[in-house]
Amino acid sequence: TEKNTPLIAGNWKMNGLATALGELRSMAEAAAGGLAASVDLAICPPATLVAAAAAAAGDSGLSIGGQDCHTAASGAHTGDISAEMLADSGARWVIVGHSERRADHGESDALVRAKAEAAWRAGLIAIVCVGETEAERKAGKALDVVGAQLAGSVPDGADGARLVVAYEPVWAIGTGLTPTVDDVAEMHSYMRKDLQGRFGPSAASIRLLYGGSVKPGNAGELLSVDNVDGALVGGASLKASDFLAIAKAA
Ligand code: PEP
């Protein structure tokens, strides 16, 4: 099977004022300078910056995403943002089910699945996040937990054109810890087989990202693992130099 074009996606979380658009412009410049020819590049800034980021990125090849969306297109949901609003602001992607949303806002697999469906309704590509906690891995349950999250969070009809899955072990996010390459290989192969079992051969085109403390120093090793089609990068996506070094390792 052909290798998928790698995707390096940055998650800025609740970081970034308008001054951060300078970093984004540097990323866009590198994308337009040739980097985007071999790697898909995306930054998911806070919602307040999506429109400005999309304008700054222009047609550089760097694309912009949201970090969450509501399930409804509009309505009485004070403070929430719909997938349609993100698309209207220039977003192409939206992260759903990040472990921080699952933990801080009690998001269930069913809700994450409905959000992914909302993303599709709006024409966005959903980046669905899954991953076990440290206790779950220590108990030998990592594969089962992720399998259940995939079954519950990924909508029917998924294919590589509108779904990306990010495997993000909760204990590796923001900690500087990463799983061994063998553990990443095992999980990604498991996820590929699981998705193929459900969606058939078209699941080969679903990009499976690894996320959790990806840095310039470990990106090459993690990105070379079988069935790792890119990375979801938190802290190291805030600086253009780090993000671009990771993208160049892809
Ligand atoms: C994330 O939040 O998606 C993430 C992977 O964070 P970090 O790279 O900072 O561990």
Characterization of this structure:
The structure is a single chain. The two termini are 18 Å apart. With 250 residues, the protein is of the alpha/beta class. The radius of gyration is 17 Å and the shape is globular. It has a single domain (7-249), classed as Aldolase class I (TIM Barrel, Alpha-Beta Barrel), CATH 3.20.20.70. The protein has 10 helices and 8 strands. An 8-stranded parallel β-barrel has the order 1-2-3-4-5-6-7-8, surrounded by 7 helices. Phosphoenolpyruvate (PEP) binds next to strand 8. Residues 11, 168, 173-174, 211-214, 232-236 line the site of phosphoenolpyruvate.
Summarize the structure.
Helices cover 40% and strands 16% of the residues.
Question: Helix and strand layout, with pairings?
Answer:
Layout: E1 7-11, H1 21-32, E2 40-44, H2 50-57, E3 62-66, H3 83-88, E4 93-96, H4 99-104, H5 109-121, E5 125-130, H6 134-138, H7 142-153, E6 163-167, H8 181-199, E7 207-211, H9 216-223, E8 230-233, H10 240-249
Parallel strand pairs: 1-2, 1-8, 2-3, 3-4, 4-5, 5-6, 6-7, 7-8
Helix pairs in contact: 1-2, 1-10, 5-7, 7-8, 9-10
Bound molecules: phosphoenolpyruvate.
